[in-house]
Input
Amino acid sequence: MGKAQVLILSGYGVNCEVETGWAFEKAGADRVTIAHINRAIAGEVSLDDFQVLVFPGGFSFGDHIASGRVLGVKVKQELGPRLTEFVRSGRLVLGICNGFQVLVKTGLLPGDDEQVFAPQKVTLAHNDSARYEDRWVILKANPKSRSPFLRDVGTIACAVRHGEGKFLALDNEMARMKAHNMIAFQYVDKKGVPTQEYPKNPNGSEQAIAGITNKRGNILGLMPHPEVFISKTQHPHWTRLPDLEEHGAGLKIFRNAVEYVKNEL
Output
């Protein structure tokens, strides 16, 4: 059995690194390291020592220009070759909220068959509501996804906290994502049906998309925050939902990552 060692990059307005680290610790990771991105760029922290790389939520560089844009440029320019090798080796990359925006703006998601950093063909735009959305939603995972993050996830409750979460894609790119089951999560109604209805779909995302993967499935990005539903008491209605399990539904995503790198990578 291998080890699950997780690197979470912080700095420049990122603010969800501690919760995300706690989620991986609860999921059984052998080591969780939170490091400023400049330490990774300088080589003080090496990607070679980790099996999971995480871009957590926050407001990197104050969301200037566009959410995730500035940090995305920095990541691509300064860590491009090392991150390319990391992804091609099959190791896992997770981007949550602002981290998802970074992955999209760099072209890491959805990527293409030849380049790890592909030309950008999708984006995350301002919410249709024209305001910051802070609410709980229901997500449904794609049962046909090949991503190890999504194994047996099903339908989960999750929190969103973003102002730019509307997923948009070029028509041919949307078709490619559907054909290869790269749509990871969709916003759904109480019956589990993908919806464009606000606020169940909090931002107006096309096809109700809340998260996507690359074709291989080892990169996952999503706008909602699974790291804030690790214990049932984190759910806003936990006292009125007696059937909630002790562990929050979001923990499954982190456990899947840990178990994959320990047992299969």
User: Anything to note?
Assistant: The radius of gyration is 17 Å.
